[in-house]
Amino acid sequence: MRTGILTILAYFVMCSVSYASDVYITQSGASLTANINQDGQTNKFGDGTTGVTLTGDNQTLDIDQIGNTNTIAASVVGATQTFTLKQEGNSNTSNVSVGAQGASADNSIIQTLTGNSNTTNVNVAKTASGADADVDIVATGDSNTITVNENSTASMIGDDKKITNITAIGSSNTITSTHTGAADQDTTLHHTGASSTFSITQGGAHDGTTSITTVGSGHSVTVTMDD
What we know:
- There is one protein chain.
- The chain is mostly beta strands.
- Helices cover 0% and strands 57% of the residues.
- A hairpin with a 2-residue loop joins strand 2 (13-15) and strand 3.
- The termini are far apart.
């Protein structure tokens, strides 16, 4: 599929007492729009064995999963990507990679987590050049684990930035944010709750701003910023 609009309403595949839907996509070409809606438990949009791979510029991917123990495993390669993810329920997992095998720029990842004991990992430009990767994650619930690795090596120009915004409302959440590369990285963390752990590392040549606002007790916060 080179270009076009893909809409999948994968509410359920039912057999006796269990119901779930599995969606796997391998796509090459620009300007894809995909909307994935999954209701129920143990749904998969890709998994650790067979992930979803989308290659091309100007792609828009919108995934909604409502239920428990659902999975998202997706990789996007290209520039000007918009990734909107929503998981509502408990014990869900998501692993999203943008620009892992090729150059990437102007990418936006917006993720909303509602529930408890969810795990999400976002990796941007693992070994490739990339720029202004805007990652926004809002988690409402307890005992969630959020990891964002922004490993772009691109030099920022003008007002371009490598931005990460994380809001976690609840208790006992574990949040890790890592930036590396050619500076001008931002991280903003706003947390409401108690007994949560934050670890923020920002590297590169100069620049870099970390802003943390917490409400509650028993926080453990570690911030490391390199020259």
